[in-house]
Design brief:
single chain, 101 residues, mainly alpha, 2 domains, 4 helices, extended
């Protein structure tokens, strides 16, 4: 199990006692059974098959005509996390602007 505190909240969070930090984290937890989710059928994160990262180069990130991939899986950093989704969205937006311009 892991929990993340980021951004401007980490400073405030670090001022709390261990007990207070634990209580805040436990209050925020949610139980999710990924194997019971009909759309996920497994874990919350992406797992590529062995060699997929190198076998396809950057082709899995490149646009196809006017289709621009913007899922968290296309991120070059933090794939599978919100940060990766934001990065991929910004990259796709830049690619779309380049096509339009």
């Amino acid at each position: 199990m892991a929990s993340f505190v980021s951004g401007n909240r980490v400073g405030t969070f670090s001022q709390f006692s261990h007990r207070e930090q634990r209580e805040l984290i436990l209050r925020d937890l949610v139980i999710k059974r990924w194997t019971e989710d009909p759309w996920q059928t497994g874990g919350y994160g992406l797992t590529r098959t062995p060699g997929a990262w190198t076998a396809f180069g950057s082709s899995w990130q490149n646009p196809h005509g006017k289709v621009f991939w913007a899922g968290t899986e296309q991120a070059t950093r933090w794939p599978g996390y919100f940060e990766g989704a934001i990065e991929a969205g910004l990259a796709a937006a830049r690619q779309a602007i380049d096509v339009i311009a």
